[in-house]
Structure formats: C-alpha cells, structure tokens
Amino acid sequence: HTGTRRHTPRSLGMLDTPIVSLTAYTTPMARLMDPHCDLLLVGDSLGMVVYGMDSTLGVTTEMMIAHGQAVVRGSQNACVAIDLPFGSYQQSPQQAFQTAAEVMARTGAGCVKLEGGVEMAETIQFLTQRGIPVIGHIGLKPQAVHTHGGFRTVGRGEEAEQIMQDAQAVTDAGAFAVVIESTLEPLARAITEKLPIPTIGIGASPACGGQVLVGEDMLGLFTDFTPRFVKRFGNLAEQVDKAVADYAHAVRQRQFPSAEQCVGLPKGK
Ligand code: KIV
Ligand code: NA
Q1: Do both 173 and 257 map to the same domain?
Q2: Which of 118, 169, 189, 257 could disulfide-link to 205, CB 3.0 to 4.6 Å?
Q3: Residue 189 sits in which domain range?
C-alpha cells in the first residue's frame, strides 16, 4: 500500500501477494483491520454474527447499507465490498442493478458481492457493463442454505462439475474476483489454476488468490459454532468475559468508580 489511496478492484488484481480479507461490520473493527487488509467485506453473515439470526436470509438492504457506511467510515486503505442480501438481486438483472446502485451510492463502497454461478452470470454482466464491480461467490452459498441442505462442504461428485462451471460463468460475465466457500480443497485449487481472476478462499485452498474469514470467528469472539476452516488467531471472547466480570465485581464492591473517575475529587486516590 502506498499510503495515498484506497485499494480498488483493479489494484487488488495487481497484488503480488495473496489478497488479505476479513469481514467487518462496524467502524471500530474496520479501523483495527484496515491497516492490515486489502479487502474488507461487509458480509451478510452479519445477520448471524451481529443480529443472532440462524441464517442470512433475514438480512435487508437497509442493514447492509448501515453497516457498509460504518465500515467505509472506519477504513482508508482497504477496498470495501458489500454483500447484496437475499431477495435483493435474484429476481432480475434490473432488480440487482437498482439494489447495487443504491448500496454503492449511499455507502461509497468500491464493489458489491453476490452469491451464484451460472444462474447469476447474466446479472453479473448487467452490473459490470454499467459500472459496478462485482465479486462472485460460489461453492457453499449461505443464502441457498435450504437448497444446499445445511451449511456443509460442497464439491463432491456431480457438484464438482457444476461449481467449475459456476466459476467459469462468473468470470466470463465480468466478475473481478470470486469467493469460493466451503469447497473441497482439490476443486478450489483446480478452479484457482483455471481462472484468470483471483479466487478468495474461505474453507477452500491455500492456493487461492486470497483468503477471507469472518472477523469475529478468527478473533474468537463468535463461538456459537465454528466450522473446521476457521482458525482462531485470537480469543476475544475470553477477554470480554474477564473484563465484564471484573467490572461487575468492582461495581458490587463499590470499587468503581474511584476518585480517579470522579470529577470534583482530587485524582490519584
Ligand atoms: O457474508 C460473509 O461473511 C461472506 C464471507 C464469509 C465470504 O460472504
Ligand atoms: Na455473505
């Protein structure tokens, strides 16, 4: 990073190191992640991680815009991508354009991401031809959890050929990158080797052109369930638990606030 301007879809494609990406939903988390990341993704996973939903299907465009604005405000280095939520783009290319244009205009994000392969190729082409950079999302598609039959690894048997076709279709349609989620490693590797655009893996392959994780997962802050592909690089849940317990104890013992925190008393007592 030059320190002068934010990553763009174009500059992400010219990196000579893997694209470093995390999800971010809030300004303070974006501020902490931004110096280290090339791409911040405002994922619709926020429905589960921040709002306690049991799938991403209830996430709305308004939620994505509010959190997208928060992440754009908290970042200056990384390119910001915002997920189009379930029901906001699948009906037609026109519906997708209207949603994506509103998301881009109201947040200042650099691109959008949408789930789907062959069936979304026409839509991806419609958006990219009209000035909206798109990241595809293939393999496990959480918005299709009910047709997938749960959150599971995909790419076995006949699925492998379908996912390979999806990868080719989103690339041909003009996506500048594609997320591959929860897909057997050899398939994710083969897709990465075949495509001219960067693949961004989550539960995919070290060969991918980049990696993404849900921030709260890798920080050990969201522990409801943890798929095998998550590595905990931190254990914030433990630290939050300890801090809150210490606070509760201090309040109950009347140790907080002390003179230090009280205006009108001498400090340092
Ligand atoms: O919503 C999300 O967080 C995502 C990433 C995990 C790729 O789509
Ligand atoms: Na998502």
Answers
A1: no
A2: 189
A3: 9-234
The enclosing domain of 105 has a CATH number of: 3.20.20.60
Q: Which of 102, 158, 161, 181 is catalytic?
A: 181
Q: Do 200 and 243 lie in a common domain?
A: no
Give the burial class of 18: count Cβ atoms within 10 A of its Cβ; 0-12 exposed, 13-18 middle, 19 or more buried. middle
Q: Would 1 be classed as within a structural domain?
A: no
Is 185 a residue of the active site? no
Per-residue pLDDT of the chain (269 residues; tens, 9 = 90+): 455 689 999 999 999 999 999 999 999 999 999 999 999 999 999 999 999 999 999 999 999 999 999 999 999 999 999 999 999 999 999 999 999 999 999 999 999 999 999 999 999 999 999 999 999 999 999 999 999 888 999 999 999 999 999 999 999 999 999 999 999 999 999 999 999 999 999 999 999 999 999 999 999 998 887 889 999 999 999 999 999 999 999 999 999 999 999 999 988 65
Cα–ligand 1 centroid distance for 235 (angstroms): 20
Q: How far apart are CA 51 and CA 45, in angstroms?
A: 9
pTM: 0.96
Going by alpha carbons, the residue nearest to atom 4 of ligand 1 is 43
Residues 139, 266 within the same domain: no
- Is residue 121 one of the residues assigned to a domain? yes
